Amino acid sequence: MLLEPFEHLTLGNVQSRIAMAAMTRGSCGPNHTATAAMAEYYSLRARNGVGVLLTEGTIIHPSGDGYKNVPHIETDEQVRCWAQVVDSVHAAGGKILCQLWHCGRISHPDFTGGLAPLSSTARAAEGVNRQNDKPYGPPRPMTREDITVVGDQFVQAARNAFAAGFDGVQLHHGHGYLADQFFDARINDRTDEYGGSVANRCRFGLEMTERVISAVGAERVMVRISPSREMGGLYDWPDLEAMVDHLLGEFNSIGLRMLDISCANADYFKTSGRVIRMARTMWPHFLIGGASLTAEQAEAELQAGLVDMVTWGRALIANPDLVGRFRTGQSPVPFDREMLSRLV
Predict the structure, then answer these.
(1) Global pTM?
(2) What CATH number corresponds to the domain at position 277?
(3) Of 114, 288, 329, 340, which is the most buried if we count CB atoms within 10 A?
(4) In this structure, what DSSP letter does residue 29 have?
């Protein structure tokens, strides 16, 4: 089942139920453009049988950036450069979705053209930004006008992605970035309709999603959330069950049909796997998740109907041929951080 072709929604017939998770690489070209090396990086995984590839986080507008050398999808040049990546993946038989990304307060004016990062709050993220070795920049709480503008940016980025030929887009609503700064009651200290209650904290992410769905169609939109993950220990959204219940019910109501419940580099069964079991009772639609599971564990999740595809991240950096290794029973090569410095 894991290695069999799979057809779902408008993604069409995919090569396997293995998906490559979105992972930040910091290897773009001049003007935040995708490169020929990136095209080879993604298409190599597609040639080796990965069913769906999710791109590294791709910034929707310069004011939402927070990292060195990450790709954008705002200008005509950026769209043209992404098209070479998409074409190479399609030629290899794969499907590819563009992950649309706004960092919110996980940023600094060094990356936003001197502007204060936007967020749900005025409180800066704790710690030092590894991108510039400075404290995170104090954010500006978003006004209603800001929310409208960022919605416009998500919509335009989605349209740009489809102009480049992508099979879909994934809205990055997880891992502490902008939408997650509204979801998370530890961060969101607003007293307006975007803060306080479960429904209010979900409102921003739902509005961004609904605007993109209205613009480009629900069948090509996926959302990534991370209600439970590893951050120096287990880190759950406050009101976890109530948040998941409300958010998934509203996602369903606005037409979303593809969901990624992510935990990044963490114990799947303690984090996203736990949330997936909670979510599956109320989410009958397309659902992906995973975190460096063994092939046997992934097969068990699929056979139980908990997920429709399984994501791998670092294992696919280390093993472009991961599908073949699973097929032959060969052990995957362990991930090493030095692998992040080269696109292979």
Answers:
(1) 0.98
(2) 3.20.20.70
(3) 288
(4) B
